[in-house]
Structures are given as C-alpha cells and as structure tokens.
Amino acid sequence: MTESTGESGGAPGGREPLVVLTDVEKYFGDLHVLQKINLSIGRGEVVVVIGPSGSGKSTLCRAINRLETIESGTITIDGVPLPEEGKGLARLRADVGMVFQQFNLFAHKTILENVTLGPTKVRKVPAAEARQRGMELLKRVGVDSQAEKFPAQLSGGQQQRVAIARALAMNPKVILFDEPTSALDPEMVNEVLDVMVDLARQGMTMVVVTHEMGFARKAANRVVFMSDGQIVEESDPDTFFTNPTSDRARDFLSKILTH
Question: Where does the signal sequence lie (predicted)?
C-alpha cells in the first residue's frame, strides 16, 4: 500500500499544503468506510479520486467539509482544523466549495439568485456587487443568458454549470466535486467537464470524485485510487494509467478501460 505524504512531508510537487487529512477514520455502523486516510492536497493542485463503488470516495470528499463526521483523525484546511459545528464550521465551509451529483439548486429562486445567495448571506457582499459578480461567473460557465430562469427550465448540464458558478461565487480556497457528471445525460457531460478543465488550468484547488477517466488524464495533477476504504496508491495520471503498482488498481483499470 502506498502511503501518501501526510502532514509532515507536505503536498507532492513542492506545493504548499492546503487540505491535510491525517489518520482519518470513519464508520457507518460496522462498516469501516475510511481506514487511516492520510492525504495532503497542495494549493492549486487537482486531485482526482477514483475507485470501485463503495470504496469510500464520496465519503472522503464529504468529510473534507464535514458533511460527514469522522470518528478519529484530523482534517485541516489552510492550517485550520475543521471545527465540530457552529459558526466556526460555517466560516470554514465558506472556504470549501461543493458541487454535488444532484445539482441541489433552490428550485424557487432564479439562476442568478442561486449564485448570489451565499455571497450576500454568508460573505455579506452588497447585493449589487454580488449580482455583478454572479453575472460574470454565469458568463464564465456559459449560462449567463439563463440568469433570470428557474432551475427546472434548464438542462442538467446547464444546472450543473450553475452549481459550479455558485461554488465559485464564494471565492473558495478549494472546490470539492462529488461525481458531478454521473447524473447527466451523456451528451451533457462534456459541457461540465470543459468548465472543470478550465478551472484546473486557472489554478483552482480541486478534489474530484469521478468516473471520468478522460478528465483525470487531462486535468489531474494526481490520481488517488481507493478500494475498501483505503488509499491503495496515488501517482501522476500518466504513471497511474500506464503502470499502476497494485493488483487492485490494475484489475479496476482493466474493467473500465477496455471500451
């Protein structure tokens, strides 16, 4: 099993560590879903987490902003330990954007209102400034013409791009993507992945749980392979896809890269 760098060694590639998980453990009842997870994510790094269903990928992603609690271990974001609850957690969550599998937009608010809600309520950004920034972000993800529509009037791909704009509106230090394309029709997947590739190129720190191997090859600095609640191995995409070191990774890749 490949040990990740953890807190002592810093993030790979000489990057300053931004998100650090140390000895993180998580159970669902008797199921040990995260087992001694050590992972350091550098500032500006794109880490893609892959592995078979039930390997703990989404739980790992959700633990980073405490949507899932952990039994033991520590998680720090920009040197600050993840608080248990309360205002401290809300403040830290504002620094951690999250894009879900199901877009989770507010159905009764317009697209622009969805994007400006967080900045005005949490960041206390003046409404006019939030609207201007919101329109800039909607243009950035290619849906500015939909600003006054409601989520149900948009395609799934458009809604997911709005969800990315909403995350960006908070000026997060890191964005977590939990299988952001798995609920989309195939023809809509690329329009979301293209936005994510652009974010990666612009230096956004990203943790992406996905089955999209093309994205991992194109945009990831590092691929983390999980199985049975453990990080089995991690390396740059070229190394991982051409020369995985573990039997489990080789078996996984043989099943998904045959088509």
Answer: none
Residue found by looking up tokens 């199985």 in the block = 227
Contact call for residues 136 and 172 (beta carbons, < 8 A): no
What does the pLDDT look like over 209-234, one tens digit per residue?
999 999 999 999 999 999 999 999 99
Q: Looking at the domain 17-104+173-255, which fold is it?
A: Rossmann fold (3.40.50)
| Rounded-to-integer distance, Cα 224 and Cα 26, Å | 18
The answer to whether the CB of 123 falls within 8 A of the CB of 131 is no
Distance CA 6, CA 205 (A): 17
Is residue 206 within 8 A of residue 199, CB to CB? The reply is yes
* Residue-level pLDDT at 258: 62
Domain boundaries, the chain: 17-104+173-255
Distance CA 133, CA 7 (A): 35
